[in-house]
Here is the input.
Amino acid sequence: MHFKPFISEEEIQDTVARMAEEIANDLSDEIPVFIGILNGSFMFVSDFVKKFPKPCEITFIKLASYEGLKSTEDIQRLIGLTQDLTDRTVIILEDIIDSGKTLAEVHRIFKKENVKELRIATLFHKPEAYKKDFKLHYVGIEIPNKFIVGYGLDFDGLGRDYPAVYQLKTTQHMTNIVLFGPPGAGKGTQATFLKEKYDLEHISTGDVFRSNINNETALGMLAKSYMDKGELVPDKVTIDMLAAEVEKNADAKGFIFDGFPRTDAQAKALDGLLEGKDSDISAMIALEVDDEILVERVLERGKTSGRADDADESIIRNRIQEYYKKTAPLKDYYSAQNKYFGVDGVGSIDEITERLSKVIDKL
Ligand code: IMP
Ligand code: MG
Here is the structure.
């Protein structure tokens, strides 16, 4: 079970302050009764009333589970409401409203109380999970339909004490590698071996471009005009193609990105893409090869690959220069996260695969 940071202590506190202010502004001079639903709301109620700028009363009620008539049936009832609430303004303080079952129970018991007004305030709300029509008067933060823990909310009884909120990771752990290196470094060759060995999807920007070009897609034609000149394709075009490729392989154990990202903006876009899959880049691995060896290797490849940009030495040198100029910041980007690994890219294919595996096995 993995949890990742989701909502910071600061954001929670700001939200609670905003809710306290909004509710205070909506109320006249009467003294409201705040009712927290235990257990989850204890932390929210405590922080909320400290920020609430006017006098107020505070009480709690609790959901109790009884066994139903059939042993599988779980009946939930709210207990603990002993105070006379006739003609009072009552504001329910909930930590989270999920399906709305608890809220339905709140409405059921308040039907019998002759309150002046009943309002519902919840710190968190999952709109996608909500199945009721009861109005939610105050909502702190809307969240996706995923399990969260912290700030009063528990997972199997634990985690209520955390001042921040964490989200349960639902997808399996992925190994996502950015294979890095100038043209001719052997990325494609190594990716083929690593893909087999670690059961990963290989996404080569070059291949994705070429298949778009062969199929004469709009993105493909656009990309072509840049590639023919030995220039990098603009970020937006590249990212759109890559996102589609990742989506095609929704169940992958991980990806090898080859030829991508090449700019800071692309690296951030890639982070965003993977974050949407509850994942991230595990490592950037760079194959390090001397310039002269690179030119030789690419010219050799050009004899058989049929790629126009592999046949012309000045275009090759331009691509190598372009690579170093534009990708240097990426090394810093991943180094700052301790995710950058340099690997000697000169040697036999097996030797280099071995060196790469040493890095991947430790991820
Ligand atoms: P309801 O579905 O709106 O009735 O919410 C039921 C209860 O489930 C809440 O009061 C919480 O105690 C619990 N709950 C719902 N979603 C979460 C969550 O993401 N984390 C922890 N507890 C939750
Ligand atoms: Mg609750």
Observations:
- The first strand starts at residue 3 and ends at 7.
- The chain has a mean pLDDT of 90.
- The CA atoms of residues 185 and 289 lie 6 Å apart.
- Residues 313-335 form the longest helix (23 residues).
